[in-house]
Design a protein that fits this description.
This protein is mainly alpha-helical. The protein is 75% helix and 0% strand. The protein contains six helices and no strands. Helix 4 (76-89) runs antiparallel to helix 5 (93-106) and helix 5 runs antiparallel to helix 6 (111-154). The longest helix is centred in the last third of the chain and has 44 residues, at 111-154. The relative contact order is 0.10.
C-alpha cells in the first residue's frame, strides 16, 4: 500500500463506507426510476464508486465519469481528476497518467493532480519491478528445466 506522505493524494487510498456509498446509490436509483438523473447525482455516485474498494464499483464509476466527461463539457475539469484516480485504483496506470496529464495541462499548479502523478509513477515503477522479477524467475525455471532435459537426453 502506498505511503500517504503526499497530503493531497491521501484521498486515493481512502474509501467510502458501505453506508456512505449506499446513500449515493439510493439517490441515483431514485432519480433513475423517475426517468431523470441529474448530472450532479451521476457525478456524486460515480465519485463514490471510484472511491470504493471494490473493482467492479470502480469500473462502473469510471464508466459514469466517462459519460459525463463526453456529455457535459462544463464538468470535464472535475471529471479529469476522478477519471485519473479511478484508473489508478484499477491499476490502469497509462490511462491514469493520460487523464492526469490533461488536468495538469489545464492546471499545472494543481497539487492534488501533482501528488496523484507521483502515486501513479511509484505504482507503475513498482509493478514494472515485480514484472521483471517474475520474468526473471520464469527464465531461471526454464533454464533449469532445459538443463535437466539436456542431462537426461545425454544418459
Amino acid at each position: 500500500m502506498p505511503s500517504l506522505d503526499l497530503p493531497y493524494a491521501a484521498e486515493a487510498e481512502v474509501s467510502l463506507s458501505y453506508d456512505e456509498l449506499e446513500v449515493l446509490r439510493l439517490q441515483y436509483e431514485k432519480e433513475t426510476g423517475q426517468k431523470h438523473v441529474s448530472v450532479q447525482t451521476r457525478f456524486n455516485y460515480a465519485w463514490g464508486l471510484v472511491k470504493s474498494p471494490q473493482h467492479n464499483d470502480q469500473v462502473e464509476g469510471v464508466k459514469l465519469l466517462s459519460d459525463i466527461f463526453r456529455q457535459e463539457p462544463t464538468r470535464r475539469r472535475e471529471c479529469l481528476y476522478y477519471l485519473a484516480l479511478g484508473h489508478y485504483k484499477m491499476r490502469n496506470y497509462r490511462e491514469a497518467r493520460d487523464f492526469n496529464a490533461l488536468l495538469l495541462e489545464k492546471e499545472p499548479n494543481n497539487m492534488q493532480a501533482q501528488s496523484l502523478l507521483q502515486l501513479i509513477e511509484r505504482a507503475d515503477t513498482r509493478e514494472s519491478y515485480i514484472g521483471m522479477a517474475l520474468l526473471g524467475g520464469v527464465a531461471a525455471v526454464g533454464a533449469v528445466a532445459i538443463a535437466s532435459l539436456m542431462r537426461r537426453s545425454k544418459k
